[in-house]
Amino acid sequence: MWNDPDLDDNRAQSRSDTRDKRNRNKKQKEDEKEQELSAFGYESYFFHNDGTAEAIEQGQLLITWQGQDPEDENTLWLDRYDIRNLLDDQRLFTGLRVIQNDYFLREASGLDDERFHDLDSDEELLFDMDEDEREEHLAQKREENETSQYKGMQYEYNEDKIESSQEPTFKIHFDVPEGMIVPDSEKILALIERTAKFVNNSSEPTMEIILQAKQATNPNFAFMSRRHHLFQFYKHVRWLMQTGLYESAEDVRQREVEEAMAEKEEEARRAAEEAKAQEAALHVDIEKVIEKTVDFIVSNYGDGVFERKLLSLDDPRFEFMKPGNAWHEYFVRKKEDVKEARARDAGTARTHSPTDIELEKHDPTKLSSYQDEICQGPVTPTFPSSMSYKEARAAEMRKLDRLQRIEVKIKVKIKVKIKIKV
Where do the H-state alpha helices sit in 50-130? Predict the structure, then answer.
């Protein structure tokens, strides 16, 4: 078959054109993708720098246009980011004043509402006012609020008068300058403390103004106004907190509680020491009574007659002679020690007539004299608190009667023994 070379060339050219067209379309699509609008947002931080702000106001950060002479009076100073730095002719600085598309102007008010939606209108106004205008505006807002609170309230003439309950007076727990007006209730003081602490701890320098705007209609925060009588006190509390000299009412109460607890502990410790000292003194006195009783028993009634007589009296002063008493062991041990000491010290037996020995042993006056001597001691055991006066009186009468009968019996026995020996 005959092949036409021109036909083959046309076919090859058409395939090449198709391939090139396909490549151009593909590249065009890639370029369109690259040219798509992309927007990125970054978080911005604002810093309060007075030095930089002053430098900007004085124009220290401006540059001359196209490197003009800074000494020339007609030199144009621009910001380094000003678009006019890219122009070579100042005549191009003034463009057309006719706005082709005023759509954004029609939507400007709506955009502003959206921008400042979170900002209170009253608060926004306060930033544009000076201090006197701000105080006047806040006072007017408070007056309007107080007037609206009592609107629609009807006075009842038939109601009984109720005396207003006054809050208990309190004292300020820190020093204030002479003549300064202080709050008349602890509630107002606590509110001033919390407000001053909140403003001092805030990192926002205009927090006090913001708080005034938000609480403009709240009469409880009227002390933040310069015209209020507690404004100086509020400023004084803020100053004390800033200098670290302030101590809150809660801290004062906590310190007073701790001091009261420490004082109670000290009183309890002193009472315990006094009780311990009294107990030690009582022990010493009881020991003296026991020693004197043991000495009298061993010296006069070694056979145990006097000891049994003392036990029969049921006298609370001689409870230590009973086996169940806590001092009984000491009494027994002391009696044995005295007996051993007397036995060692006895060198020669004294000569006494039997009559004298019997009279000395059974002399009833020694029993009564010893009881009187014990009664005159430094400390005598007391009667139980449960015993009434009449019962104690009757017990004493019974004891006296028993002692009299014992004395009579002893006298009779002595007379009989004397007659027998004579």
Answer: 50-57, 103-106, 108-115, 121-127
